[in-house]
Each structure stands twice: as structure tokens, then as C-alpha cells.
Write a structure and sequence with these properties.
Layout: H1 12-23, H2 27-38, H3 45-52, E1 59-64, H4 71-83, E2 89-95, E3 120-126, H5 131-147, E4 152-156, E5 173-178, H6 185-191, H7 193-196, E6 199-202, H8 209-230, E7 235-238, E8 244-248, E9 251-253, H9 262-278, H10 281-309, H11 311-323, H12 328-348
Parallel strand pairs: 1-4, 1-5, 2-3, 2-4, 5-6, 6-9
Antiparallel strand pairs: 7-8
Helix pairs in contact: 1-3, 2-5, 3-5
């Protein structure tokens, strides 16, 4: 197979070839495209546009939890469970970023070298310390992998605090992983992840059965308020007519290392997917997710166009903000109004562009 080198200036034929290679799940090509997405390279946009029209079939599972809970052991186990059935699987492991390069510190980690199997793709992404930027990059990467035909996409998060709740905007099923003796039950409640997780899993149950049982009990009690208030049971809940109406997070004990409970966890994830599909929540979720990405893209595009046309004005406004003579929010409002006035002026003058430096409202 010829080398899939990606140039910055690609013509229509190159874009078609690039899309074909990604659709064929050419690993090196996909990896390079992910790097371009991470770096905000605009030349990857035609590919994302093409892949977006083919997306909407993958199921995305987010695995979060504090370091030491065993995410790095569970994720490959889940990947192999689906891959063994012929489902192409992609793993996106969000790692801490280097403060110098912004890249993932752990990279393609040694512990995952065994994932060089058929139907499993693995990639580390740097968290870059930016919740919003990471979410945008991940959304685009997921769209590309979805369009490439990966049926299951697993996202393993850094697991370091409140930003973990953002995984729920990217994953259809969010799995919170903990382990006996970590003492992170309270932290999970504080960060809010316990409230939005679709299932709570106590890992390493084989090493400390008593501790695992105690941890599961604590977490189940924390979730019991909703059970008491609404009469919910763990898993799928139905109304008197048998219509699936709600899902209450189950708490389960497993051992990812020994494999104990992993098959049951796979079944549980499939049950949640079935609930989302049968209740049409998955369809609504996908639509809302795309709308949110459109809103973000719209803001980015408007800013980019404004900056291209009004670079001098933008520099002036930024200096005023830095000096404290103009508040950030007022500056943003005035810049937006200036952009609107410029657009209206172009319409009235027949499309002729004239740079304006006045930022008065």
C-alpha cells in the first residue's frame, strides 16, 4: 500500500483519496488526520464534512474515574469483547498534556501495545488543559471515526476532577469506574459525575471482596434517593403500558484483570443502548450534539472572519482590555456590533469591503 502522506494543500482528487483511505480505516492516515484535528488545522475540514455525512451509526462509551481505578485494564477488555464479534472498535485515551508541546505525555502507552489487533484502533489525545477545546476536537475525531465505520468508540478520560462531567456530552453511555480503598465515592458526588453516570462499576473486586461490597453499598445508597423519590429500579424502568421511560444507574462489581463480570458489563452497556434506541433518546441526543457543535463552529467562524477583516481593530480592542480601560464583555459586545455594522455597510454599498476602525456602539 502506498504511503498515505497528507499535504497541507490538497486538491479535490486528494481529498477524495483521503476520504477513501479513512473509510478503509487506514491506521496511519487516520492517525495523521487526528493530529491535524488536534492542532486545529483548517485543511482537514473537507474530510470532516465528508465523514459527517456518513456518521450516525457508532455507539460511544465514555469510561471515567480517578487514577488507580483500573480504566487502562477495563478499556482493552471491553474493546476485545466487541472486536471478537467483528465490530471495528476505536479507543481514544485522553492523557495529561505536556506543558511544553501540548501533546499527550503518555503517548501510545506500552500497556496498550497488545491492541495492535484487527478491528481495534488506539490513539492517545492530550487533554491540553482545556475542557472546551478538547471537547471540540474529540467531537470531530468521533465524527471521523464514526464515518470511517467504527461501530464502537471507547473514550478513556484523564480522571482528575470536575471536568469529567463533560464526557457526558460526547458519550452515549457514561461509565464511572472506582475501586475499593480509593475513597473517591465522596469526590464522585462532589464532582457531579455520580449524578450523570449511566452505570457505576466497582473494579478490582477479586482483590478485596469485602471492600468492593462496602464501596458498592455506599454508592448504591448515594443513588437510592432517586429510587425512593420516583420508585425507580436499577436499569430500565417502564410505565404501566410497558413503555421504557427511564434508566437508573446500576452499581456492579467486576474484575477487569481476571475478566470476572466483564461479560455482564458488556450486556449492561448493550441494555443501555437498547433503552436509548427504543425510547428515541439516542436519536434526540445525536441531533442535539450536532447542534451544539454547529453553535461552537458558528462562533469560531464568526470570530475568524472578523479577525481576518478587522485585524487592526482587534489588536486595538485587545490592548484596551489588557490595560483595563475596557471590560472583556463590553469589548466583545462592541466588536460584535462593529462587525454587524460592517456587514450592513457592505450590503448597502453593493458588497464593497471597507475596513472600519471605530468600535463605538
Amino acid at each position: 500500500m502506498k504511503d498515505a502522506r497528507i499535504t497541507q494543500a490538497s486538491g479535490p482528487e486528494d481529498q477524495a483519496d483521503l476520504a477513501a483511505r479513512v473509510s478503509a480505516r487506514h491506521v496511519r492516515t487516520i492517525s495523521r488526520c487526528i493530529s491535524r484535528i488536534e492542532n486545529g488545522d483548517p485543511s482537514v475540514q473537507p474530510l470532516l464534512n465528508a465523514m459527517s455525512t456518513r456518521s450516525g451509526n457508532a455507539f460511544v462509551v465514555g469510561i471515567t474515574g480517578v487514577p488507580g481505578s483500573g480504566k487502562s485494564t477495563l478499556v482493552p477488555a471491553l474493546a476485545r469483547a466487541w472486536a471478537s464479534k467483528g465490530v471495528p472498535v476505536a479507543i481514544l485515551a485522553v492523557d495529561p498534556s505536556s506543558p511544553l508541546t501540548g501533546g499527550a505525555i503518555l503517548g501510545d502507552r506500552i500497556r496498550d501495545t497488545a491492541l495492535g489487533e484487527t478491528n481495534i484502533f488506539f490513539r492517545s489525545l492530550g487533554s491540553r488543559g482545556s475542557k472546551g477545546g478538547l471537547a471540540r476536537a474529540l467531537f470531530d475525531v468521533i465524527e471521523m471515526l464514526d464515518g470511517a465505520g467504527y461501530g464502537l468508540i471507547l473514550i478513556e478520560t484523564v480522571g482528575t476532577g470536575q471536568s469529567e462531567t463533560s464526557i457526558t456530552k460526547l458519550a452515549h453511555t457514561t461509565l464511572l469506574l472506582t475501586a475499593p480503598g480509593l475513597g473517591d465515592e465522596v469526590q464522585a458526588m462532589k464532582s457531579g459525575i455520580l449524578e450523570v453516570a449511566d452505570m457505576v462499576i466497582v473494579n478490582k473486586a477479586d482483590a478485596d471482596q469485602t471492600g468492593a461490597a462496602a464501596t458498592a453499598l455506599t454508592l448504591r445508597q448515594s443513588l437510592a434517593e432517586a429510587t425512593r423519590a420516583h420508585g425507580l429500579k436499577e436499569g430500565i424502568n417502564t410505565d404501566p403500558d410497558g413503555v421504557q421511560t427511564a434508566w437508573h444507574p446500576p452499581v456492579r462489581k467486576i474484575s477487569a484483570l481476571s475478566g470476572e463480570g466483564v461479560r455482564e458489563l458488556v450486556d449492561l452497556i448493550n441494555q443501555h443502548r437498547g433503552f436509548l434506541e427504543n425510547s428515541r433518546k439516542l436519536l434526540v441526543w445525536r441531533g442535539q450534539s450536532r447542534i451544539e457543535r454547529f453553535d461552537e463552529g458558528m462562533r469560531d467562524a464568526l470570530f475568524r472572519v472578523f479577525a481576518e477583516r478587522n485585524g487592526d481593530m482587534l489588536d486595538t480592542i485587545r490592548r484596551a482590555v489588557a490595560e483595563g480601560s475596557l471590560s472583556p464583555l463590553r469589548a466583545a459586545e462592541e466588536a460584535a456590533r462593529a462587525g454587524i455594522r460592517e456587514q450592513n455597510s457592505e450590503v448597502s454599498t453593493g458588497g464593497r469591503h471597507e475596513t472600519q476602525n471605530d468600535t463605538r456602539t
